[in-house]
Amino acid sequence: MRKDGALWALGAMSGTSLDGVDAAMVLTDGVTIEGFGPSAYRPYTPDEQDLLRAALGQWPGDPNVAAAAETVENAHAEVLSRFTGAELLGFHGQTLAHDPAGRGTHQCGNGAVLAQVLNLPTVWDFRSCDVTMGGQGAPLAPFFHFACARHIGATEPLAVLNLGGVGNLTWIDPTADKAEAPGALLAFDTGPANAPLNDLMRDRLGLPFDADGALAAQGEVDEAFVAMVMTDPWFDHPPPKSLDRNDFHGLLDHLEMLSDADAAATLTAVAAAGVAAAQIHFPAPVSRILVTGGGRHNPRLMAELRRRIPSTIDPVEAAGLDGDMLEAQAFAFLAVRVLRKMATSSPGTTGTPALVGGGQISRPDP
Ligand SMILES: Nc1ncnc2c1ncn2[C@@H]1O[C@H](COP(=O)(O)OP(=O)(O)OP(=O)(O)O)[C@@H](O)[C@H]1O
Ligand SMILES: CC(=O)N[C@H]1[C@@H]2OC[C@@H](O2)[C@@H](O)[C@@H]1O[C@H](C)C(=O)O
């Protein structure tokens, strides 16, 4: 029997790696996870990626943004139309620019268009309200991570680490009354994760990423360089904090003297060192870090994490979750929360002064 208020929600995420659209269904009332449904992935073609890359860092009104938005909407319409039985859509869109202390945050793709095309009530623009209210606008997955921690029966503090283009981590006390409770969650971005490594692979070798960490495995980490990066005050800065995809892009200029393999090994280590540095911000130590996002497929990155961090480091699959779809599931879950007028972020997640519920709701014409 369905719990009161539970809906089959479809969530879609187009992440900072610009690789494609993840989509997944969750049965939820926005508090507990009642079940996971089907999922799908739709990669962007190289031409589509070029259009998106040309719009990175741009704000509404820039000539490249309209083409990027159309690309995002079409790719989403294509993959989302394969699903049946969804009652609500949570559409994240593609982050093109993120500057919470300045111009705000910009996800392209219009949820109102998707609501019509898919004939589904659509929750979108999840981050703007948070930034307007003084929050970072990211990360937003933590309320879902709290539900996941409950779903897997966790009883002591743990962390969920997402290794996408940027890394983000959620520290969770699963014994808290609810996700909104003070002290239940502490979340923040950990630093660059796959983005600089992907950019290196693309610039030097014309490849999208270091598949299975094969190139990094042939190189040596320049530990002095890693230590130098870690002196950036950003890592010691207490949460809340969030990054734009290209905030650490300048790293690549300093690696020109290194071979391809050494540069790949060093950037892989930088991603892991950022996570190790994050531990000083934990309210209490964790015995386990569950890793989600594409970076968990990189054995070199996982090895660097294990070398630098004493906690057990497992892919989320070890706890029965799907690390390729967790973010898409998060936006399905958050859509239900928005529909039900529940908070989507808190002082511990995005650093808003109070609980905030973001998101716009667009409904198809009757
Ligand atoms: N087999 C693999 N070996 C090495 N790296 C991999 C592998 N599979 C995926 N990745 C890395 O993971 C990235 C994709 O990760 P993911 O899909 O989590 O990113 P995203 O959702 O776009 O990012 P974000 O969470 O920052 O929004 C790829 O670009 C690549 O760097
Ligand atoms: C502004 C933005 O899109 N941020 C993303 C990005 O990708 C990873 C990290 O940086 C995280 O802060 C966030 O996404 C996840 C889904 C989040 O909001 O929880």
Automatic annotation (TrEMBL):
Keyword Repeat: no
InterPro entries (UniProt xref): Anhydro_N_Ac-Mur_kinase, ATPase_NBD
Pfam families: AnmK
Entry keyword Translocase: no
Pathway terms, separated by semicolons: Amino-sugar metabolism; 1,6-anhydro-N-acetylmuramate degradation; Cell wall biogenesis; peptidoglycan recycling
Region annotation (Disordered) ranges: 344-366
EC number: 2.7.1.170
GO MF, one example: kinase activity
GO process annotations (BP): 1,6-anhydro-N-acetyl-beta-muramic acid catabolic process; amino sugar metabolic process; peptidoglycan turnover
Top-level taxon of the source organism: Bacteria
TM ranges: none
Positions with a binding annotation for ATP: G15, T16, S17, L18, D19, G20, V21, D22
Family statement drawn from the similarity comment of this UniProt entry: Belongs to the anhydro-N-acetylmuramic acid kinase family.
Function per UniProt: Catalyzes the specific phosphorylation of 1,6-anhydro-N-acetylmuramic acid (anhMurNAc) with the simultaneous cleavage of the 1,6-anhydro ring, generating MurNAc-6-P. Is required for the utilization of anhMurNAc either imported from the medium or derived from its own cell wall murein, and thus plays a role in cell wall recycling.
Full protein name: Anhydro-N-acetylmuramic acid kinase
Organism: Tabrizicola piscis
